[in-house]
Design brief:
This protein is α/β, with parallel strands linked by helices. The chain has helices spanning about 5, 20-30, 45-60, 70-75, 105-120, 140-155, 175-180, 205-215; strands spanning about 10-15, 30-40, 65-70, 125, 165.
Length: about 230
């Protein structure tokens, strides 16, 4: 049996974005990986799915699960899922929760991952959540993940043990970029833009955070941006 086959299995929640890709590179060092992707009716769903498969191919993943949760789009309340709500321009220093927040999305994502982990016998779930250098989403806080891990323990079989791992939770975007480069993560395969699926807009919160991170790290972002950027 190969060394890789002997490794413990872990699930990685892979959106196709920068943070989830670097989280994948971290998890890949010590675990066999199964990848879960959430399609929830977001504007760039097809582009994110393409990034998901490209990254999963890079890590030669056999176990992949696409979870469709289009009900989040029907619920609405977010610029990412409701076409009548414009994607806001980046306002990184503005307090409050932006309209790009998808209400309680990470709870749905983690619930699906926990169900799959229990079936596969995976003891770890990795998620690339970032608290310090994020858009202020309440479901990206460390205490949220601790509470959800406790909920998983209460709601699964007595013999089930699943740990939520958030290796980037206290990192700034520039640190995440540097870690990704150090681990040879395929950052060129990622997609972060909330608005566009062709050329990244460079103007939404996600693009602005990403660009600031690469700039602070002294590195060039390998994905294409609209000409005005």
């Amino acid at each position: 049996m190969s060394t890789v086959a002997k490794r413990e299995l872990a699930i990685v929640l892979l959106s196709g974005g920068l943070d989830s890709c670097v989280t994948t590179a971290i998890a890949h060092r010590d675990y066999r990986l199964a990848f879960l992707h959430l399609a929830y009716g977001q504007r760039t769903a097809r582009r994110e799915l393409r990034a998901f498969h490209a990254i999963a191919d890079h890590y030669q993943a056999k176990e992949r699960l696409i979870v469709g949760l289009e009900s989040l789009a029907k619920i609405g309340g977010s610029a990412l899922t409701d076409p009548s709500i414009p994607v806001p321009e980046a306002a990184l220093d503005q307090p409050g929760i932006p309209m790009s927040y998808v209400p309680f999305r990470n709870a749905h994502l983690l619930s699906s991952a926990a169900s799959w982990a229990e079936v596969l016998g995976a003891g770890k779930i990795f998620i690339g959540a970032v608290e310090e250098d994020s858009s202020g989403y309440p479901d990206c806080r460390a205490e949220f993940f601790r509470a959800f891990e406790a909920a998983i323990a209460l709601g699964t079989r007595p013999e089930t043990s699943i740990q939520l791992l958030t290796p980037l939770i206290d990192k700034q975007k520039s640190e995440i970029v540097r870690i990704g480069r150090e681990l040879d993560a395929p950052l060129e395969l990622t997609w972060s833009c909330y608005k566009s699926s062709e050329l990244a807009c460079g103007r939404c919160d996600s693009c602005a955070l990403r660009l600031r991170g690469f700039d602070s790290a002294g590195l060039e972002d390998p994905i294409p941006y609209a000409p005005e950027i």
